[in-house]
Design brief:
Largest sheet: 7 strands, mixed
Radius of gyration: 20 Å
Order of helices and strands: EEEHHEEEEEEEHHEHEHEEHEHEHHEHE
CATH architecture of the largest domain: Alpha-Beta Complex
Helix content: 25-40%
Distance between the termini: 17 Å
Shape: globular
Strand content: 25-35%
Number of domains: 2
CATH topology of the largest domain: Quinone Oxidoreductase, Chain A, domain 1
CATH superfamily of the largest domain: Medium-chain alcohol dehydrogenases, catalytic domain
Number of strands: 18
């Protein structure tokens, strides 16, 4: 089966390439229907990764957040036309202790391994999860980032002490919003405090106890635990503010990705006896639980749908560039590509 792949060959430049798909028993062929642009995709598209990284990983098909329809399954375990979410993390071994998304041998789509910008995608059958009819496919397109949030909250519940009266979240973007929603679902009585820099974005956290600009946090502010959802150059300030304000023996979840090393006030980490843990990506069980969460919680799903900034009909390479350029200019939220190439 001849397949068309849309690879980024250099920043802002997609090219069409063709490859044969082997229709063997191990794969299910999925036609993407809705794809979501992530900040990680943008770092490649805009050439914001280090030159040696770009040289190593390009050409590559972008996008690791997508849903699609099954078009072929030789075993007929999936019905043709079945809506599925595609899991970008692909493990090649099992470990009784380490989760699949942390195994160094795992591959991740759109990170040195072709993502979902293809006419058809050959997926291992254990990398697909059926989508119930009541899940909006536009929301389904970014289940991956929702599953990362779900994964981190579950790890937090495992690692943190039992006092969870108040939690602070640094960040006012998509990731912070998703973490907040899942935290309120898991801990309905918790007081959430949002620390950000955009008043208009923080206004959307209607379920938070209060919001503060990071330069106007009250001196007497304290909380039990914290999540850092900032990333980039803001990591240093966010991480060290958290260390300053958090109560002793609190847990700190680091979720923001930084290209540079971040200096931390380790002296205060020691004095307060803090637990700091990192979370990245997600695996099959996280996706499965996230699909269940969305299908059973209409209110949460509706709140998450508010993150959709635009849906762009993509029928050509020019439309792909248009979608990525539009995503750069957006104030916030998610840019969704309706895949009609």
């Amino acid at each position: 089966m001849l397949n068309t792949i849309y690879r980024l060959v250099k920043p802002r430049n997609f090219e069409i390439e063709f490859e044969e798909i082997d229709l063997n028993d191990d794969v299910v062929i999925v036609r993407p229907s809705f794809l979501s642009i992530c900040n990680a995709d943008q770092r490649y598209y805009q050439g914001k990764r280090a030159p040696e990284v770009l040289k190593k990983k390009l050409p590559m098909a972008l996008i690791h957040e997508a849903v699609g329809e099954v078009v072929y399954d030789s075993r007929e375990e999936f019905d043709v036309g079945q809506k599925v979410v595609m899991i970008p993390n692909t493990p090649f071994e099992k470990d009784s202790v380490i989760a699949e998304n942390y195994l160094r041998s795992s591959k991740f789509r759109a990170s040195g391994f072709d993502g979902f910008m293809q006419d058809n995608v050959a997926m291992r059958r254990d990398r697909l999860i059926e989508l119930p009819d009541n899940i909006d496919l536009r929301v389904g397109a970014f289940i991956e980032i929702i599953s990362v949030s779900y994964h981190t909250v579950q790890r937090f519940l495992k690692f943190s002490h039992r006092r969870k009266d108040s939690i602070a979240i640094w960040g006012d973007g998509n990731l912070a919003f998703l973490v907040s929603i899942i935290l309120k679902h898991e801990l309905p009585d918790v007081k959430l405090y949002i620390m950000g820099i955009h008043d208009d974005k923080m206004a959307g956290f209607v379920f938070a106890e209060d919001t503060f600009h990071v330069n106007e946090i009250p001196e007497n502010m304290t909380f039990d635990h914290a999540f850092e959802c900032v990333g980039g150059q803001g990591c240093e300030m966010a991480d060290n503010q958290i260390i300053d304000y958090i109560r002793p023996e609190g847990s700190i979840a680091l979720m923001g990705v930084s290209e540079n090393r971040v200096p931390l006030n380790t002296r205060m980490v020691l004095e307060k006896g803090l637990k700091i843990f990192g979370s990245s990506r997600s695996g099959y069980e996280d996706f499965k639980n996230t699909v269940e969460f969305l299908s059973q919680n209409d209110k949460a799903a509706q709140l998450i749908a508010n993150l959709i900034d635009s849906v762009i009909d993509v029928r050509s390479v020019e439309d792909m560039n248009r979608a990525f350029e539009s995503d750069i200019k957006k104030a916030g939220g998610k840019t969704i590509m309706k895949w009609n190439v």
